[in-house]
Structures are given as C-alpha cells and as structure tokens.
Amino acid sequence: MKKSLVALSIFAGLSASAQAAVYQLEELSTLDTAKHHFITDANNNGEVIGQVRGIYNLPIDVSYIDFTESIITRAYDNWKEDRFDAIDKEITFTLDDIAGGNLNADALTFMLGFLSSNNGNENWQKLADVAAVNFTPSPSVEQVLLDQTSTDYDGYTRSVSNLYNAISEDGVRVGSGSAPYKKIEFTPSGENEAETYFVRDYRSRGVVVSPTGVVSTLEPVSALYGGTSMASDIVQRPDGGYYVVGSASIGVPVDRQEDYDERCDGEDEPVAVCIWRMENLEASNALGAFYDRRAILWTLDGDLNTVETKDLGLGLVPDEDEGHAFSSVALAVNSQGIAVGYSHVRKYDNDTLRVMPVVFKNGEVIELLNQEDDWFSGKAVAISEAGIITGYGNKAIDNRNTTKFFYHDLNTGQTVFPSDYFVSSSSVARDVNIHGVIIGEGEVDVVNSSSRRREGFIYNIGDDTVANINDLLPCYDIDGESNYPYNFAEATAIDDDGVIYGVATKSKEKLNARGEVEVDDSGKVLFESVAMPVKLSRIAGGEIEECPPEAAGSYERQSGSLGWLALLALPLLALRRRFK
Q1: Residues whose CB falls within 8 Å of the CB of residue 172, separated by 6 or more in sequence, listed in order
Q2: What pLDDT digit, counting tens, does each position of 232-249 carry?
Q3: Least confident stretch, 247-261, 463-477, 502-516
Q4: Nearest one of 151, 170, 149, 172 to 160, comparing CA atoms
Q5: Distance CA 401, CA 30 (A)
Q6: Cβ-proximal residues to 74 (8 Å cutoff; 6+ apart), any chain
Q7: 498: phi then psi, degrees, rounded to nearest 5
Q8: CA dihedral defined by 387, 388, 390, 393, rounded to 10 degrees?
Q9: Residue 473 in contact with residue 23, Cβ under 8 Å?
Q10: Across the chain, what does the average pLDDT equal?
C-alpha cells in the first residue's frame, strides 16, 4: 500500500525525537494446536496474553449418539450432496465410521458442523474452539482456566468458553470462563426411557491467574441459580494490592423469577437445562436477560485474596414496575480506581432504554456521549493513568449503523471524535497509553457497505486524523523483492514506549480439522489467510517507504482475505484490553 502524506505527518508527530518512523513487525510464538491467534493484552514488560480459535482435533463423544436417528442421517445426506456429489467426488467416510470412532478430517469437520448447528439443543455435546494462551515467554503455552479432564474421552472436555482479558505489570492475569458441560441421564415425567442431556453448573466466572498459573475465581454478588461473573481488567494499586473490574449477577429480576417458577419444575427436563435456556436469552435480548448484572470493582490484596466487592452502580434508577433485567459492565480501570465501561441508561427524551459508554467515578455513573447528537449506543473500553478514556459510539451515517471511536479527557470534560478513514467508516478504539496515543482498527473499504475490511490505526491526541498502521510497515519482505506478507488488521494494545501488539493476517498452508495440510485434486498445496499475533516496534531514525504501485496493488489484494474471520473476532471486541 502506498504510504500517504497523512501517515507521514501524523506519525512524525508521535515522538519529538523522531523525524519519521517505520515499524518492524515480529511474529510471536503460536500454538501448533490451533489455527487463529488473537492478542488481548500486554504489559510494559512485554508479557502478552490472548486467545486461539480454530482448535484442531476437537474431541467427539460418539458414545451417546444413535446414528440411525433422522436428524443425523439427514444432515449426513445433505453434507454428502453439497460437499461431494456436487463435484462428482466420492465421500470419504460413513456414519458407521464415526460410530466406530474412526473420524478422518472430513468426518470430524462434518461432526463439528453438525454439533454447531445443534448448539441450542441440550441433548447434544457442547464444544468450544477457543482457548486462553500465554504468548510470552516463548514458546507460547495454553492457559487452562476452568476446563476439566473429560470422563468420556482423553484430555479436557473442550466445552468451556474462555475470555483471557488483561494482565497487570507484574504478570497477574484476569478473564472469565464457563463451567465445563457434564453429560447426564434424565427421564422426563411420563416417559419410560432416560435421555442424554449436557448441563453445566454456571454460565460464567471471573478468574484471576497468578504469574505461576494458579487460577482462582471471583464469585458473583448473587450465585442464585448459578449466577455469573466476569473480569475484564486488572491494575496494581499503589499499596501493592490490585483492582479488578468486570461485572457480576446481583440477583434475578422479578419477571425472570416468575418465568423460572413457571417453567423450571424439573418434570420435563433437568432444572439445569431450564436455567441454561433462560440464560441464553441474554445473547439475544438484553431486557430478557436472566440475571440483573452490575459493574463490579474487586479489591484484592497482594496475595490475590478478595478483600472487597463493590457494586459500581447503574446509569438509571429502575421504576418499581420494571421487572426485567438491567445491566452495567466495567471494562477498564486505572490505579486510582476510576473505571469505565457501559450501562443501561434512559433515552434523553423518554424512558426507552439504551446502552451507552459511561465512567464509574466517586459513586456516580456518568454518560460520556451526548445522545442529542444522535449517539444511541456505545462502550468505553480503556482509561489511562492520565485520565484519558477511549471507546466508541454508534450512530446512523449514510443510512448505515456506524461506530466511531472517541476519547474523553476527565481533566477537561471534553469528548472528541477524531476523523478516521472516511465518513462512513466504522472505527473502534482498543487502547490508549500514558502519552495519549490511541490504537484500534477501522473499515477501509469505501464501496462495499455490507462487509468491509478492517485495518489497524494509530492516533495521537491533538492530530487531525488517524494513520493506517499498514502505511508504516515495509513495502517488501526481508528479501527486498517479495511483497510484504502481512496485513495489520487489529491493533489491540500499546505500551508506554509505543510498542504495539495486535493481529496481522498472513497466507499460510491450509490445515484441515486434524491440523493436516490440505491439497487440491492435483496434489497442489492450498493456502489460507490466518490471524497471527504480532509485535510492532519503531525503528529509530527509520524512513517511511514510498511503495511502487505494483507493490501497493498486490498488498491491497492480500489484505482482503480475512473475510469471515473478521466476524469471528467481533464477540471479543468488548473485552479487548487496554494498556496500563
């Protein structure tokens, strides 16, 4: 991509000691057990944490499945027709093969797709292809949060959702995970035969992980029906202890309690299944959420023991006749105990509920955006020690729901929405350092309005616009001839020295569900774009390169290959971390 004059002018302003600068990109070590790697946080000591997606060789429990049932025979016939018959190719497995535990890569892919499509059915195995990882020190290693060894197959259950969110300066990490699913037998009332169900003890627990890997949980204020908690950020306090922020259930609202009393009698299904169904409403309807949740600040001592659990409040006062759930969530905190995140609030001119960015300070929940300027939702995701908050808001631009990143200065009360890539580009901030440098990513496709490619940006408070970080990378690979193999897609964390951590896409040999290299019918190796964890360091006195048009054209084509992966990463957006 051709380096722009905007990029040169902005980046030159990031450091008084540098006329111009270019970043060198370094791949961090990855796990050979997974396809995609995402950084979620790093500290000033270069310790980096994150998550992997696309775990190879996920375990399939075939012991409870009747492979003559129509639901699976029909799925098999459809899969065979779409994947094999359509290209006049013979299918490589049968259902009898799977029943006997003989799953080749195609059979594993089929079963993973089948289980995913039936994820909302309590009678089928639950799998999660995401795991927590410590990228440093090298080589990277998986960090087990709350998963347990399976009683049905070798290794962990791999049924646990993991969010590995933040790391303190001395290496204490926080995140959250669900309880592993267990397979049980239950006979519904009036039936003669037991059915198989998959249940768990709770939806989510915040976790604290010591530098040596010892995991402890952060309990919710109310654990009624299992409850829920999550931890999104951690910072050291001046006295040697820690602040941890996130959210936790404080109870069950009146409407949901009535639903529970009516439905969860343990007659037709296990009570745990009934609760699981009601909890799942949270993903589709915030007001139908099973739990009332509040932003929480946990105070920990130096030994990581919880000494105080503080409810940070809600951005409104519920009326007595409002029996549904309300939520607030803290996503970041600084060492002064000032937290930021989001909360339910009222619309400025009526009682309609909205979710808006807020700061939790001195017992108050304060909105950061002016709703009368058409901002209808958003989140605050980071706060620096200097009192600079960054996040994003949502509004309609060119008849399209668009996110725009902002920063808010607690010292002046000023909120600013800097210019980003273009008017209708959606942009999201991820982090801000002590010097007021903000990083994130934004949409770069002008024409395609439905699915736009995103690329990382850097912005220095006070400048006119952002710089695309790809404009600050080399034109060529290390041989000086090959086109640069990386597209920097997501900037996640920036330290106080300006080192940036994030995700770049790179073309690599395509691996199947077993982690084996795939080839086409002629035996030619196939390639795919994968997400790689990377570190960007400034080169002192470096020159920003002016790429020739041919290199720019090739780069543009490479950078468009992320596709569905960009959507895959969206659920992580709210919990991507800031740097302290």
Answers
A1: 208, 209, 210, 211, 234, 242, 304
A2: 999 999 999 999 999 999
A3: 463-477
A4: 149
A5: 35
A6: none
A7: 90, 5
A8: 90
A9: yes
A10: 89
